[in-house]
Amino acid sequence: MRLIGIEWGAYPRRVTLYLDEKGITDIERVFIDYARGEIHAPWIRERNPTASLPALELTDGRWITDSMAIIYYLEELYPEPCMIGRTAVERARIRAYVSHCNDLFLRAGPVLANSWPQWSRAIRQSPETAEWMRPAFNRSLDCLETLADPDGPFLMGHEITVADCALFPLLYHEVSNYGVSLLTDAHPRLQRWYDMFARRPSAPCALRDDGVREADEADLDPNMPYWWRNKDLNITTWAASRDGFAGRSAPSGEAE
Ligand SMILES: N[C@@H](CCC(=O)N[C@@H](CS)C(=O)NCC(=O)O)C(=O)O
Question: pTM for this one?
């Protein structure tokens, strides 16, 4: 099996975080060149018309194409250490938490893209859209705060679960790429949990969504807006989605 992902992407990072925390080392990881539009390459679109990642490629060539479906599948293949809950009620509560995380992920897009200055060159921003979605986005965060275990240290109590893997990458991504935390004073449980989790070895991600490694920060042009700061990029994924991706075909090793 191998995991096809985007090194810094919040959904793919759910799975890589899970693999690291679980100690699964026998699944190969392939990262696409998102900044140059490879998400739209035919070898991805043919298998997943939504043109999104992660995908887990099975040994027979079939793909599983959703971060939590991949994680639930791997929980069945690798039951120990258990990260999905040991009783029916634990499992139900964890799945419910993950579902609220998914709502947050989906609501974050319209709010952040339509209100953060870093996005202003990527889309024509609609402040009304941001404000329309913001109450629901805030309710998702408040819900995750309320349902988090008050004593922690993990979201669901004293053991790490798939819920931690489901939420952390989004919060981390916004901090590491944009320097903005989604959490406010209304989220003390989540803040305590985030601060603890961010110190775990699995947490850091070296590559940012402008395609630059933190170590190469000096190469950025500070006068350019966010995605344009990396001088090596001459197209963006948005341009690629219009014009098509002319890069590599499927990386070797996978079933064509
Ligand atoms: N429901 C899917 C969503 C996957 C998803 O949206 N992934 C993002 C990357 S974080 C993506 O590939 N987006 C396509 C794009 O940005 O063009 C999952 O949980 O895996």
Answer: 0.90
